[in-house]
């Protein structure tokens, strides 16, 4: 029998209907409607293979009469008209070519049509089942194509009931743990260039000898990214059960998310972007589909620290905010970022605000929650330990492994504060809360914090004096570097009290340094062995040059302090004049001046004596070095002055 299908199309009520006619010597006596397509066929070939069609034809014939053409309808048919056309050819004994792409729809359709061995030997159920077991499940590529054919919802449900999806997933999970070179699998993504079994790319049938990217441990990332989300989630779960490492699982999830979530590719590297363009762009998903995918991906990500890059987690958080993911999803991503905040960069923390209710450019509240999660997970230091965690104001001591992450985060937060400080809509309480959340022991230096405060004061000139002082209390003037102190001493935006404290600590540090240089110089001169006087003299000259430069700096700071003292005395004089005019007492000027100086001392918070800024004072005691060191230094300095090199000074107690 010669079988040929003629494709006809016609419009009815503005809807497109299609028909397929079987051209034989006999007129068709049954019409099968599958979706919007009608098949004009014969009863006998169908009845001899399908129990379902036999029942439907019997029911239709009894209701319509034997003389009329029988019409049956197959709704929600797996694979649609294309699959039924293949089944019709099989019923007419036309050779059917089974492939990995059509075997699953044919297996599901044959199960619905009851095409078992009762209705003919070698029926379609047996043929498709044998092809699945002996061909598809033994091949990585065919198993992938079989799962890709299950993307439609009607096929997915039937294939899941027949356990086809589970069998294909188990086959892929087992093969993913095996070295692909042992079996010579092609292992290329569908549509990719042909390769030799050893991995060399084929060009004109000749192996180039080049190794494919599939030889690495994550060779299957790109292959499985072509699966639909429900099947992919089940595959990843099965791979975890088969013992595949968390690092590989995380890599596959990242690859899958970057393929279907466009928001993750906005800040990726140029090399990664070039790779994505080469592999082809996937069709864009709807907003709801992207949100569902993001929530599933974040749920499957391994929880181990460092397995998922902070850059990817940051992009996932930004995309979740844009897609308006559920609050638990956003909160869990923030916790993941907080658990490894010491591995993040400044760019990862700059989360743009997408809510109309927030006025700031960046989402400071989100970062504050992230920082809170980090501090909660790194509570390794307590009160007594924080009192001695610096050495020479430069290095953390105690437990470096525990303090290093906190120090990195402190530096990162200072950089973030400097970035957002220029936002005029950033309120002082938010800035103060974020800067004050960092423990004091986490900052060896306060230069980064000072820079952020200076930018904030410059961008918010309307702050009151009390607000400026409140903001400047965040930093410790003693922990500023020399360069930062020089800048702060001439910074007009800082409160007067902070400038005085900066000058005080700068002068204190310089005098201690000069005393140390004198002590070292004396030890070099008295302890040099015979024959080494030339070396000692050269070292002594170097020390004297350093001392001279320090003296110049001391002189400059003393001038600044002297001018500051004059301004304070002018303020006291104005206050005393006002008191004299109000009280009318002749001797109230001196009393008012003393009272004013007392108030200024209490306001500045430090007991600054008038002779502290004098050029004649050459010594300041440091209470921290008074045990043993101060007395020795004093004797050495006085000894040198008695020798005629320096004038003898009496120290302030």
Layout of helices and strands:
Blueprint: E1 5-12, E2 15-22, E3 30-34, E4 37-41, H1 43-47, H2 51-64, E5 70-74, H3 80-91, H4 103-112, H5 124-136, H6 140-148, H7 153-161, H8 164-176, E6 202-203, E7 206-207, H9 221-224, H10 229-241, H11 246-260, H12 270-279, H13 287-300, H14 310-323, H15 327-339, H16 346-349, H17 364-377, H18 383-386, E8 390-391, E9 395-396, H19 400-420, H20 428-436, H21 447-459, H22 465-472, H23 482-489, H24 496-526, H25 533-583, H26 588-604, H27 629-642
Parallel strand pairs: 2-4, 3-5
Antiparallel strand pairs: 1-2, 3-4, 6-7, 8-9
Helix pairs in contact: 3-4, 4-5, 6-8, 8-10, 10-13, 11-13, 13-14, 14-15, 15-17, 19-21, 23-24, 24-25, 24-27, 25-26
Search tags:
653 residues; mainly alpha; Potassium Channel Kv1.1, Chain A; five-stranded mixed β-sheet; two-stranded antiparallel sheet; 27 helices; 9 strands; disordered C terminus
Q: What is this entry, summarized?
A:
With 653 residues, the protein is mainly alpha-helical. The protein contains 27 helices and nine strands. A hairpin with a 2-residue loop joins strand 1 (5-12) and strand 2 (15-22).
Structure description:
With 653 residues, the protein is mainly alpha-helical. Among the domains are: 1-136, Potassium Channel Kv1.1, Chain A (2-Layer Sandwich), CATH 3.30.710; 373-380 and 393-494, no CATH class; 509-621, no CATH class. It is 55% helix and 6% strand. The chain has helices spanning 43-47, 51-64, 80-91, 103-112, 124-136, 140-148, 153-161, 164-176, 221-224, 229-241, 246-260, 270-279, 287-300, 310-323, 327-339, 346-349, 364-377, 383-386, 400-420, 428-436, 447-459, 465-472, 482-489, 496-526, 533-583, 588-604, 629-642, and strands at residues 5-12, 15-22, 30-34, 37-41, 70-74, 202-203, 206-207, 390-391, 395-396. The strands form three sheets. A five-stranded mixed β-sheet has the order 1-2-4-3-5. The protein has a two-stranded antiparallel ribbon with strand order 6-7. Helix 3 crosses helix 4, helix 8 (164-176) packs across helix 10 (229-241) and helix 24 runs antiparallel to helix 25. Residues 1-19, 186-215, 269-280, 380-395 and 585-653 have low confidence and may be disordered. Residues 575-603, 617-653 are annotated as: Disordered. Belongs to the NPH3 family. Residues 28-100 form the BTB domain. Residues 547-574 form a coiled coil.
